[in-house]
Every structure is written in structure tokens, then in C-alpha cells.
Amino acid sequence: MFSKGFIRTLLATALVLTPVASTGALQTAEAASAAVKVTLDGKSVALDSAPKITNGRTLVPYSSLVTALGGKASWDAKNKVVSAVQGSTTVKLTVGSTSAYINGAYQSLEAAPHIINGKTFVPLRLISEAFGKWVTYSKAASTVSINSTLTVTTSTGPFTLKKKPSRIVTLTSSDTEIIYALGGTVVGRPTALGPVIPSAAASAPEVGSAHGIEFEQLAAVKSDLMIASPALKSQQATIEKLGAQVMFNSHNTVPEIQASIKLYGRILGQEAKAESIVNGMNAQISQLPKLASKPKTLIVYGAPGSFVIALPTSYPGNFLTLAGGQNAADKFPGMSTMPQYAEISLERIVAANPELILFIAHGDADEVKASFKKEFETNPAWKSLPAVKNDKFEVLPSDLFAANPGIRAPQAIAAMNKLLQQVD
């Protein structure tokens, strides 16, 4: 049995130690929040209270943040609503609610605003990004950085965005798809020869293509960023006179498509989503059936009378390699105007001796196939090719191959892989 004196001593010790442990835990949490620094364009932001971390999100006093960003803040005490205004942007947040409204549009929050010691704390990222800034967090430096500009690397080199874009124009369908997959939208899109993908972009006006721009339409949509092909560099000054920055970027191969996904994810502040899309693409490609051999395949692009041959550096050529085939034209010289493609050459094709011929064209697949077959079968030299003798002609699906499919590249590669299995 324990003596009464021992029990009294034990209870007294517990009463002394318990609050010390709780205070220590609280102080540790406070220290973790207080240790987070906030900078704007490299300069420290003066906050009237230390940042707080809630659900992995940084919350700061709303008045200090909005003022630092050059906006105006107001407080509706009756409804507990914070309003932040900068230029044409208005953000409304309600204490205790995970619903936010940016210019009237709903947005969900992971951490609701709350009041601590009489001060209202709001999510730093939401307001900063709504005001056209980029936000990054360095765990090593324990610093949240807000930046007014962003320098990225495109396929043509470094490019600096002067503000976070909110009115993007794309001139290729693959760029449009990537932007929407990352949660963004466009105010202008390329001219569509078929169904608009994604369908959510169908309501955006057509402003041209990778080969030319409809400047009247571009002026009407009031874009702040156009993503364009490097082939349009000569139009840069005209585009910028209409108020849009123009970023030149292109992609052909899967690695280049994935680089564009990460690039646009960085611009939109959706790096994690971009990484997830890239990982998903890689997983789909890695699960394709492996072929015992690599069937020699010729990819013909165009229409009878205006054929070109897809080389390994083109998107169909790269997809063929990833699907498990061998490009019969891997030694063909590229065209000066389109380096990823070669002019059609009877002698080279006969020497390449393809086992399978794949066609890319717009229109009805059966009609296209019949037209191609007729042209190849009427030439005595081509009739000796294994692909012709064994009737190995196939038309690739136009929705996946008529233009670079971007994030749908794994589906295109899977379609090729299925055709290659018939020859393997």
C-alpha cells in the first residue's frame, strides 16, 4: 500500500507538470507559426500579428496583407465578412466559412478565416493570387514568398510574366486542353475543324490558329496572355499592342508535352495538379502491352497528292516509339519548313520496306483508307512492300492524331500499340 503522504506528493507533482506540458505544446505551435516569414517581391511584409498555420495553409491578418498588396480592406462586423478590393477584383470571405467569392464566383477554401485575439486572419494564398500574384512556400527557409512577376522557361527560352494571367488565349487545341485540365479557362481558342475539346471551351471565341491570328477577335476578348507557336514571333509586336503578353511555346514529344503541363501549372499556381497529370500519363504508357518485335512502320500525314512522312521527332513519330514500333523513316531527311516531317520519296520508302503503314488525315476513316490504298496499290514499286502485300494499312483516329493530343497522348499511344500488335 502507498502511504497518504506519497499519494499527496504524487498528485501535487502531476498538478505542477501538467500545465507546463500543455504550455510547452502551445508555445511550440505558436513558435512554428511565428517562425513563418512573408515576403512581397523579396521584401519582408510587415504584419501586425504573426502568421498562423491552419490545415497546412498560411493565414495572416487581412488588413496588413491587403494593404501590402495595394488593395483596400473593409470589415462587415454584423455579418463577419471581410472584403478586399484591388482594381476590378473583389474578394469576399466570411469568418468560419470555407466559401470564398472572387468577383462573385464561388471558390472553396481549405482553411476558413477566423478571429484570434480580436484580429481576423484570412488565407494568404487566396487573396494574393486573386490580386494577380504568385505564391510559393519554402519549407527550408520557412518563408512564404509573394511575387508580382514570374520568370519561367519555355521551349524558346526564359520568359517573364508581368502579372498572373486571368484571360488566357490559346492557339492550339493541346494547349487549350492542358489549361482546362489544370483548372484554368481560356477567353479565346483556336479555330476548330471538329468538336471542341474540352467541351467547356466551346463557348470561347475562335481567335485563329498556330499559323495565323484573327486580330479583331483577339482585341475583342481583351486577353492578358496569349500562348502561341514560335512560328508567330513576327506577330509579337501587333499582339502586344492589343494588351496581351505573348509567350511562345511548343511541344511535339511526350516529354515536351509534359514540360508544357508543368510550365502552365507553374503559371496557374497548380504545380501539384500538373505533377499528378504527368505521373498519370507515365503510368498509362507504362501499362501498355510489350511487343515481341518492333514492327517497321511508316506514318503518312496529309492527303493523296500532298503526303508527308512523320519522323521520330514529330508527335506521331514519338508516339510510335513509345507504342513499341520502329519508325521506317528514321533515316529520312527532314523538310526545311517542317523538320519533324519528310517529303514522300518512292525510293526511300521502298528501301525502308515498312510492314505497316499508318495514315493521319481528317475525314471518314474508311474513305481515307480506300483512297490511300488505291494510290499505293497502283504503283508497281510500292506493291512489293510487306505492308501493301499483307494489306496492313490503317487510318489513325483523327481525334487523337489530326493535331497533337497533348494530355491525351497516352490514349493515342495505346491506339498505335493496338495496331502494332496485329503485325507483331
UniProtKB/TrEMBL annotation:
Q: A Pfam family for this UniProt protein?
A: Cu_amine_oxidN1
Say which domain of life the source belongs to: Bacteria
Establish whether keyword Acetylation is in the entry: no
Q: Which Gene3D superfamilies match?
A: Copper amine oxidase-like, N-terminal domain, Nitrogenase molybdenum iron protein domain
User: What PANTHER family does this protein map onto?
Assistant: MOLYBDATE-BINDING PROTEIN MOLA (PTHR30535:SF34), VITAMIN B12-BINDING PROTEIN (PTHR30535)
Q: Which family does it belong to?
A: Belongs to the bacterial solute-binding protein 8 family.
Q: Which UniProt keywords apply?
A: Signal
Q: GO biological process annotations for this chain's record? A: cellular response to iron ion
Q: Per the record's keyword annotation, is Signal included, yes or no?
A: yes
For this protein, the record's InterPro entries field holds: ABC_Transporter_SBP, ABC_transptr_periplasmic_BD, Cu_amine_oxidase-like_N, Mao_N_sf
How is this protein named in the record?
A: ABC transporter substrate-binding protein
- Fe/B12 periplasmic-binding domain: from which residue to which, for each copy? 167-424
Signal sequence range? 1-24
